[in-house]
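Hi team,

Below is the intake form for Cytochrome P450 78A5 from Stylosanthes scabra. Please confirm the fields before the structure is written into the shared record.

FORM ID: S-0412
PROTEIN: Cytochrome P450 78A5
ORGANISM: Stylosanthes scabra
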Amino acid sequence: MGEKGHVEVKKVLHLGSLNNVMMMVFGKCYDFLNGDGVILEELVNEGYELLGVFNWNDHFPLLGWVDLQGVRRRCRCLVSKVNAFVGKIIVDHRMKRVSGGYVASETVGDFVDVLLDLEKENRLSDADMIAVLWEMIFRGTDTVAILLEWVLARMVLHPEMQTKAQCEIDEVVGSRPVSNNDIPNLPYLQCIVKEILRVHPPGPLLSWARLAIGDVCIGDKLIPAGTTAMVNMWAITHNANVWSEPDVFKPERFMEMERDMNIMGCDLRLAPFGAGRRVCPGKSMGLATVHLWFAQLLQGFQWFPCDEKPVDLSECLKLSMEMKSPLICKVVPRVVA
Ligand code: HEM
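The structure came back. Fields below:
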């Protein structure tokens, strides 16, 4: 802000979120300008790019052996790099145990430690561990960053809501830094996050595709075994038969009618983390992170539009549903009396 007179939040949120996940998963923060941090950022970006590529081979299996766009070659190359990167971290964790640097009953470990403790009973192979760890990094990073970008865009567009949420924080928290324990006492802030998850769900098609493994009846429709189905959560959350004024951004709706609505997968009118066996395993962590960071960003700063780059709410569906034009805004520190 000091240098340019405006801030593009996307990159900052992405790197912050990546380090948040890395800290929980590998117990380590990275410097994204040097060394391993640069490699990690390259691996994550290559993964997102490959998942977003339109691959002709998916639609014309006969082309299978040709690999026209080189997608398979790039995937193979990425897999071997991820195996080397994550494999080394697992080896480092094992060495620490051998040298007495980690004692399961005494040390607060990270997610790799949790998996290594499991190993004795369930004998997770290294390949399984690498897959689980990479999935956590991959699914946990952008969802949080993208959701926060939508939250901030809405705050810039609706200054009266921004002020209302800031007053709530000031009343409940005062001048000390807001913490995790304050979140249950900030109902309006939670309503804003719920309304963002309704209007701009980062995973609008949940996990993209599901396969019916047996015949299923939904209402009066038969879904035969072998059918590939997609759950369009975006369509449900924008359906006028389900939601009143679905296109209006109105956090207050959750203060009134839907005060206790559970968004963790029990109520299919709003299930932004999916539901059932494949529900998002990071939902509690993701929601806790978004609530806390949003509260901190509102407590510490005032968010304004940038005259040259007005907020554009157009959507772009990649692995997650992102803002088509990244948010650019002005940010001024707040002083709380
Ligand atoms: C606010 C942030 C997040 C949102 C909106 C979100 C949303 C989702 C959605 C919609 C799915 C598909 C569920 C389904 O098909 O039923 C999913 C899956 C998944 N999420 Fe999240 N997620 C978030 C944060 C996280 C975090 C922080 C992690 C891990 C640290 C994570 C890890 C995963 C994994 C591993 C899967 C795949 C589960 C499977 O295929 O069985 N997510 N997430």
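SUMMARY LINE: Residues 7-333 form a domain with the Cytochrome p450 fold (CATH 1.10.630.10).

Thanks, M.
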